[in-house]
Amino acid sequence: MSNNLTWHLPIVTKEDRIKVHGHQGAVVWFTGLSGSGKSTLANAVDYKLYQDKRRSYILDGDNIRHGLNKDLKFSDKDRQENIRRIGEVANLFVDSGQIVLTAFISPFQADRERVRKLFKKGEFIEIYVKCSLEICEKRDPKGLYQKAREGIIPKFTGISSPYEEPICPELIIETDKLSIEQGANMVIHYLKENKILE
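The structure assignment produced for this chain is given below.
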């Protein structure tokens, strides 16, 4: 990093934006295997927030790789950089007083912990979207597991690359046992109970 950079303080503060929005800023970090329901769940929560006139936005793994992170592949190093960049972008959203919902496999515990450290206590909400590998493979909406089993996709999380389950997430939502509606309601309840939403 250059020594010629200076952090500029805004006139409109994070606290000012929170007052306007009527709620705290936070990142709701959905993590889990491909096909576990992260994006579906994030969208269901986003829609509930939208209906309640809350400020929220989704950062989805596939969408981000179409633009911001299109230069990254799927090596461990690139996956780490992918999550680092997303953490920084999510931090900007939280600074703007919004609730940002991220849907990324984010397979490594150390990467998720590194992102958590960017935020104040209570602003990073890790949600483990738990679903058995068997069910994720049956769902396989993109046909990725089949390709991984055939060796077409190397280093695929859950098959040829590890997924490290969260050690102490704020929530665990078992999407092979609960409906998306039930899971989304759990997230909204958590946000209210922890004063992110009043």
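Interim note for the steering committee: The chain has one domain: 14-132+163-193. The two ends are 39 Å apart (CA to CA).
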